[in-house]
Amino acid sequence: MITTQHLKNAMDTELKPYGFQRKGSNWYLSSETVIAMLNLQKSQYGATYFLNLGFWLQRIEHNDFPREHQCHVRTRASSLWPEGTPRPEAGPPRIADLLNIDDYPCDDTQRLDQLRQFIAVKLIPVLKAGLTIEGLNQLLADHDEFLITLAARTALRLAPLD
Question: Is the pTM of this model over 0.85?
Fold first, then answer.
């Protein structure tokens, strides 16, 4: 059975070569202007996990290791990438299913391999793209699934909400 530590080890394998620094269940990649972070969150109701992405703008406030809920821009990986299949035999699963250890039947090795592939192909490019103000603005233009604080909207010169 997959444990939280198994998931963290698989994530470390993919993220460390790109310079991500782990602190607890968070991985950070920093530039002078933006800190990109990935958070592994476990549900309190069982063996279901979530991957949360966050971006911290250093021009608003300096913080070397912001918590996911403090980030100025954030979302869940399953919101950005809802595609996939809920059936293991039908191809690559949705990330939400892959991280649902209790209810999604899957070989442990296959699950960890698919998680590492998801991180490498989907998450790392997005997190790296958001390390600049220009890149973060482009991500926000391409995806409307991000929650953006008012301070970040101002700092990024985004249109105010109606």
Answer: yes
